[in-house]
Inverse folding.
């Protein structure tokens, strides 16, 4: 019996927030963040494999990461790796992947996942997806996963839930999407019980998401519709190389989710973090009695507190008197920075690029 | 005309105080401390060459550093490098070197120098040595160089001057040697005008220092006297390998200088530092407007003050909020430590060795 369930893993992101632990040529999703021997991308694949077989997993990434993906995921066959010739955010990526999968299987339903998140409760995660797939298989609906908020986090977008769907516990109509709130608003969201963190995980049937593109994002739809008949054939690559960079750079949230009227949310509590910042990493990592986190290095810390040591390679770090710091190193770059000021790191990376060149970022 | 002036440069020290900038296999004297392209040892040789020709410069070092010495000082011929088979402090080193030189030249006078100090006023340094050599050539006297103290430094030994020597301005009899004083005593020393920093630089005739060994350190003298007739011959190495490690490990100060009654001091002001600590390095290095010192690396520092960045290799360091820190790295070890607590670094190195092994020190 043919398996109509597909998974698209988006793994083309750059992620300069973890510089220099992550680097241009090896961004976050390819790093063994927790010293488990598996990168975040590998963990993402491991997590979905009990639900969706390897031959139905499609990776979409930037062409510059083709080598590292083959190295990290030899179980994914070559034809399942879609290489974007340019960076155009998530909407064009998702549109291409849907066309590709629809060409393989007109009845396909798709789980779309980021490649660089942490999920601690994997069984529950799969149960949530299982039920979500069941829902979208029988419906023209676009389903997103909303996480029960654990704190008034100002780094996430929020989804407000509306009316619950009968027979599908935990699935509701989406009332609104909101941008990252300020702290006061985030507290109101948290207390209301109506708002959930926007996870960036989506479920839909291939045909239905393409219908939504046609209706809400015709400027993208037009580009990829022109390739009908070429997807999942030897001519696909040449077509994509010709047209892809003409697509606008826009997220799926802006392009579709915030506009469509058939958007639903499955609420979940799966031990999730987007690992979007050193602070998030710090909060989700095991800490020693002084509150220090060690990522893949040997540390002798005297009177250090709440400090993250993330250094690649077989290295010893001796530190004293650091309170709330990031100590991160990779290859030819070393960062020693207060965690509380981590929002400045993007700017720092730009400064480094400008003053010292691409070789250090 | 034969040149009877010789220089012995002692370059076998380990120096764990600058770990990890200095390492077991590349201690301080072999490092390009100031980013000038020359190591401290090379600078020591460069400094003495206008006074004493390369063929009269003898290097005494541990046998494990033979390779790095040949690499750094190709101008010193093989037979001028004396390789100690064991670490025995300065007295046995000096005794051996004196025997070696006496065998080459019975009229030799010797300038003995450490290899890891900084001297800013090189012309004055050579003038001081010139006059010192003139003094010891015509006298059975042991001459040490005493530096005019610039602060009540508690990290140096002090020499108290006695009666001045006629016809040799700045040369006095030594009244006493003192150990490193506490701060209060150091202040008294400084104000008295009678006390000078003990530099570890010595001048004497080869025959006279060996006489002093015979009289004050017979347990060392006995060992090396047994080799008479073998020094500066092909049999010297085999003899030294047999006997050297039976010598006691003792400094020249304890073994001879503090006991002998023919000890003199030439006082000098030559911009000297023993670079014995990060603080000393900090004080002698050029600083930027925030008081930060950068040794051979690229640094982007935000709100850092009075911090030393000493990182080897082509590396960028981004740091924020450090005040009075050492950031030092070499190969597989990184140190981030308050300068004010640098006296703990020796212990730290021991801890690292114990917990993680020799490979990190």
């Amino acid at each position: 019996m043919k398996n109509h369930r597909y998974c698209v893993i988006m793994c083309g992101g750059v992620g300069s927030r973890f510089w220099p632990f992550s680097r241009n040529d090896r961004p976050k999703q390819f790093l063994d963040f927790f010293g488990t021997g598996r990168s975040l991308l590998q963990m993402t694949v491991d997590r979905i494999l009990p639900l969706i077989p390897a031959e139905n997993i499609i990776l979409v990434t930037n062409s510059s990461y083709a080598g590292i993906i083959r190295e990290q995921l030899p179980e994914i066959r070559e034809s399942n790796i879609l290489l974007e010739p340019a960076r155009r955010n998530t909407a064009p990526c998702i549109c291409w992947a849907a066309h590709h999968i629809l060409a393989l299987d007109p009845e396909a339903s798709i789980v779309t996942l980021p490649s660089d998140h942490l999920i601690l409760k994997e069984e529950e995660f799969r149960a949530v997806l299982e039920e979500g797939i069941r829902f979208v298989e029988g419906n023209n609906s676009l389903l997103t996963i909303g996480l029960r908020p654990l704190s008034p986090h100002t780094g996430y977008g929020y989804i407000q839930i509306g009316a619950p769907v009968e027979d599908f516990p935990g699935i509701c109509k989406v009332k609104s999407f909101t941008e990252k709130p300020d702290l006061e608003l985030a507290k109101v969201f948290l207390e209301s019980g109506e708002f959930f963190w926007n996870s960036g995980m989506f479920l839909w049937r291939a045909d239905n998401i393409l219908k939504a593109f046609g209706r809400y994002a015709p400027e993208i739809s037009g580009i990829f519709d022109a390739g009908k008949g070429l997807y999942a054939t030897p001519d696909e690559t040449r077509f994509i190389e010709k047209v892809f960079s003409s697509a606008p750079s826009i997220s799926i949230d802006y392009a579709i989710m915030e506009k469509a009227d058939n958007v639903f949310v499955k609420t979940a509590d799966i031990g999730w973090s987007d690992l979007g910042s050193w602070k998030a990493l710090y909060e989700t990592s095991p800490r020693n009695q002084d509150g220090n986190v060690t990522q893949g290095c040997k540390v002798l810390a005297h009177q250090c507190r709440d400090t993250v040591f993330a250094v690649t390679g077989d290295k010893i770090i001796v530190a004293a008197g650091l309170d709330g710091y990031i100590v991160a190193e990779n290859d030819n770059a070393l960062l020693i920075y207060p965690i509380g000021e981590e929002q400045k790191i993007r700017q720092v990376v730009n400064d480094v690029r400008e003053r010292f060149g691409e070789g250090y970022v």
Remarks:
- The interface with chain B takes residues 20, 298, 300, 302, 311, 313-322, 327, 329, 332-338, 341, 344, 348, 351-352, 355-356, 360 of chain A (CB under 8 Å).
- Residues 122-137 of chain A form the longest helix (16 residues).
- The two ends of chain A are 48 Å apart (CA to CA).
- The first strand of chain A starts at residue 5 and ends at 10.
